[in-house]
From TrEMBL:
PANTHER family linked: 2-DEHYDRO-3-DEOXYGLUCONOKINASE_2-DEHYDRO-3-DEOXYGALACTONOKINASE (PTHR43320:SF2), SUGAR KINASE (PTHR43320)
Name of this protein: Sugar kinase
One Pfam family here: PfkB
Record organism: Caldicellulosiruptor naganoensis
UniProt family annotation: Belongs to the carbohydrate kinase PfkB family.
Keyword terms: Kinase, Transferase
Alphabetical list of Gene3D superfamilies matching this protein: 3.40.1190.20
InterPro entries: Carb_kinase_PfkB-like (IPR052700), PfkB_dom (IPR011611), Ribokinase-like (IPR029056)
Transmembrane segments: none
All copies of domain Carbohydrate kinase PfkB, residue ranges: 2-313
Length: 342
């Protein structure tokens, strides 16, 4: 039995050393990353039993990517070897007032060649507690979207909880295109983990101006946002939202919130995050939320654990939160202060 199975695209990540610009680079550091893969890698490091579903080309790059996942204990038995290329993205890490930026080279990557019957969803979802994917996967191609919808439908039939992150990417599609597609997916979703902006701009959940303080939602507005979401989509059992306030590329404020069984809004602490590597912070938060749900943590503990995972991820090079459960538990013991462990 798998705790979590994820479906998406993992790519080869190439980034100049340190904070060099791409135009300066004479070499690139290699990593692997993709939203869904980042989530299952993080969960596997916390002790969850995870699996990843995708398509890789039958070549050494595909083999290297499989080995990356296996190294962290992610089951790769459902990965299909098909297609001609692995998607690539080039990351330029931001610092100070210069933001990070990404250039994608993922057209015609292997996952887009998926056809009905390539993936044995019947076998996979017969042994799964939570199935996870994101709007990034939905945006890739019609083939991938059709496969995702089929998996969501079968998951609902089998009583598997569907977790979803809107994860809008402007380099993949527009807000209008995302709204049209993700509105079709939302009736299958049990657990929504995303952020305020994506809810408002992709799902078109309108919040009146009076509930804002500048560009930030007030606490009352955050409660209304969740209530409107669950009113529009009655199937949503759990909504967990992240909020990020960017001071610079090197320092962010991050927190999360949700609604408890009594209808009260529960907030995490607001964490000041020092950024070494920005990519994958939201995925670390998502992994923490899913871990909390799997283990029945109270909302406050779940949020503290999730935001701490996000904070830790920002200190780690690469896409995934490579942290242990013992490291994450420090925050629940009020010991997340960064002092050297001797």
């Amino acid at each position: 039995m798998f705790d979590v199975v994820a479906f998406g695209e993992i790519m080869l990540r190439l980034s100049p050393p340190g904070y060099q610009r791409r135009i300066q680079a004479s070499s690139f550091d290699i990593n692997f990353g993709g939203a869904e893969a980042n989530v299952v890698v993080a969960l596997s490091n916390l002790g969850a039993k995870t699996a990843y579903v995708t398509l890789f080309p039958p070549n050494p790059l595909g083999d290297a990517t499989v080995n990356y996942l296996r190294k962290f204990g992610v089951d790769t038995s459902a990965i299909v070897k098909k297609g001609k290329r692995l998607g690539i993205y080039f990351l330029e890490k931001g610092v100070g007032q210069r933001p990070s930026s990404v250039v994608y080279d993922r057209a015609d990557s292997a996952i887009n060649e998926v056809q009905p019957g390539d993936i044995d969803w019947e076998r996979i979802l017969s042994n799964t507690k939570i199935f996870f994917s994101t709007g990034i996967t939905a945006a890739l191609s019609e083939n991938v979207l059709n496969e995702l919808i089929s998996a969501f439908r079968l998951a609902k039939q089998k009583g598997v909880k569907v977790a979803f992150d809107i994860n809008f990417r402007s380099k993949l599609w527009s807000y209008e295109e995302a709204h049209e597609v993700i509105s079709q997916l939302m009736p299958y979703v049990d657990i929504l983990i995303t952020n305020e902006e994506h809810v408002r701009r992709v799902l078109k959940i309108e919040i009146e101006r009076e509930y804002f303080d500048g560009i930030d939602l007030k606490e009352e507005g955050q409660k209304i946002l969740i209530e409107k979401l669950q009113s529009k989509y009655h199937n949503l059992e759990k909504v967990v939202l992240a909020a990020r306030r960017s001071i610079s590329s090197s320092k962010n404020i991050f927190f999360g919130y949700t609604k408890d069984a009594d209808g009260n809004i529960v907030f995490s602490s607001k964490r000041e995050i020092e950024v070494v590597d920005r990519v994958g912070g939201g995925d670390a938060f998502t992994a923490g939320v899913i871990y909390g749900i799997l283990n029945g943590l109270p909302e406050k503990e779940m949020l503290e654990l999730s935001t701490y995972m996000c904070a830790l991820k920002h200190t780690i090079e690469g896409d995934a939160a490579l942290v242990t459960l013992e490291e994450v538990k420090q925050v629940l013991l009020q010991d997340g202060h960064g002092l050297m462990k001797r």
